[in-house]
Design a protein that fits this description.
Aspartate Aminotransferase, domain 1, Aspartate Aminotransferase, domain 2, 13 helices, 17 strands, binds pyridoxal-5'-phosphate
């Protein structure tokens, strides 16, 4: 396992999903951030087109007002239990969030991250059905290509990053997988719109096969990360919503990435005009300044539950909630959601120029979340080798640019405050790296 040794040579930091040879070659130790840039301890500066690689830093690095809001709350009340008591900041954050969440998502539990939010959402769904007398509903439908986190129930729904899934098998029973709406390489070998949205319609057949009386929820990201910022075709979510309604299945929309302006709306599902029953949030909810996630739901889900059997010590944490509040205030008052839509449209327009490369298959994106899909053959849409994508990411890093790889694609998710000059420079570097890689592969 990859370990990063401390100065004495005795201690080490256990690295997540990092190959040993990365440590041997040397990785940047990031010590500071300012706006869209981060700096390592050797004094190198990087333009970060990923908001911290896992994409939380929506408002940018180095916001003193946000840091101060958390510090002030820690001095006033650092902690109190979420059981039988609550705290004012949790109430305030619920009130603030409910101004922006879609429809009637007005009830919130605050947790520490996206996985905990998904775990809580699945428990809410299960306990909702149980309290209504449907004690057998335990299965959750998710999609191939889905990423919902790493806690037990979240991992059960993971349809991508299969090494993580397989390393922990056997998993909690109850996974049901359906296809993702990945039109560029349709898993059903169909073409939109002639396909009549079979990837969505087919969910009905799978529910019948699994037994509707066993199915608790359908979970999906409004725009999916698995294949690189993949928006579904028009009409997809309406079909899924209708099927869930027909079978009494709760629809959990996972906004962990899409929420808080990432796609140019407060929440990703707003692009598709349907109402979730439960919503999960994290990342942009606190812009990464403190660990924070949330699950929200409509009254009809929470009301039948007598007592919600679930607790984390740090649920509804006052310091995290104070930071979340300040972050939402910044997003709102500085119009960063509208900005994400505008600057994201510019980014996508400029990034399309990459499609001239023989190895770039498709450039897509919504707001400040963009994907570059690759292929070794544009005619057959052949899959691109992952190690080659990793090599493009490393080339960019050496030139001072942070981008990330996601499945067969490269992904970009900059802080929403990014300026056009940074976008232009970033695209120039990506062009160089893609051209160098293509030449190396003999595909230039
Ligand atoms: C859609 C989605 N859900 C859940 C998670 C899990 O969030 P976390 O890593 O904060 O536990 C992620 C993480 O990337 C995610 O993208």
């Amino acid at each position: 396992m990859a370990k990063l040794k401390g100065s004495s040579g005795k201690s080490s930091v256990i690295m997540c999903r990092t190959p040993k040879d990365f440590i041997e070659k040397g990785i940047p130790i990031i010590v500071r951030g300012e706006g869209t840039r981060v700096f390592d301890r050797d004094g190198n500066s990087y333009l970060d087109l990923t908001s911290g690689v896992t994409r939380p830093v929506h408002v940018g690095y180095g916001r003193k007002d946000l840091a101060e809001a958390a510090g002030k709350q820690a001095a006033e009340l650092c902690y109190f239990t979420p059981v039988n008591f609550t705290n004012q900041r949790a109430i305030d954050l619920a009130e603030s969030l409910s101004r922006f969440t879609p429809g009637n998502i007005n009830n919130f539990l605050f947790v520490c991250d996206g996985s905990e939010a998904v775990e809580s959402a699945m428990k809410l769904a299960k306990q909702y059905h149980s309290w209504k007398g449907d004690k057998q509903r335990f299965k959750v439908i998710s999609r191939r290509g889905a990423y919902h986190g790493v806690t037990a129930l979240a991992l059960r729904a993971m349809g991508t990053v299969l090494t993580m899934r397989h390393s922990m098998e056997p998993l909690t029973p109850g996974s049901v997988f359906v296809e993702s709406p990945y039109c560029y390489r349709c898993p059903l070998h169909l073409t939109y719109p002639d396909c009549d949205l079979l990837c969505a319609g087919d969910v009905r057949r799978i529910i019948e096969f699994e037994g509707p009386e066993h199915i608790s929820a359908f979970i999906g990201e409004p725009i999916q990360q698995g294949f690189g910022a993949l928006a579904p075709p028009e009409g997809y979510w309406e079909v899924i919503r209708e099927i869930c309604n027909d079978y009494g299945i709760l629809l959990i929309i996972d906004e962990v990435i899409c929420g808080f302006g990432r796609t140019g709306r407060w929440f990703g599902i707003e692009h598709f005009g349907i109402q979730p029953d439960i919503m999960t949030m994290a990342k942009g909810i606190s812009s990464g300044y403190v660990p924070l996630g949330a699950v929200g739901c409509i009254d009809e889900v929470i009301d039948p539950i007598g007592t919600f059997e679930h607790i984390h010590t740090y649920a509804n944490h006052p310091v995290s909630c104070a930071a979340g509040l300040k972050n939402i205030e910044i997003l709102d008052q500085e119009n960063l959601i509208e900005r994400a839509a505008e600057i994201g449209a510019y980014f996508l327009d400029q990034l399309k120029s990459l499609e001239e490369h023989p190895i770039v298959a498709e450039v897509r994106g919504t707001g400040c979340w963009l994907g570059i899909d690759f292929t070794t053959d544009k005619k057959t849409r052949a899959v691109f080798p992952m190690d080659r994508l990793g090599s493009i990411v490393q080339r960019a890093l050496r030139k001072g640019l942070i981008i990330k790889l996601m499945g067969q694609a490269l992904e970009l998710a900059p802080p929403l405050i990014i300026e056009k000059s940074d976008i232009d420079w970033g695209i120039k570097i990506i062009h160089e790296c893609v051209a160098e890689e293509a030449k190396d592969m003999g595909l230039a």
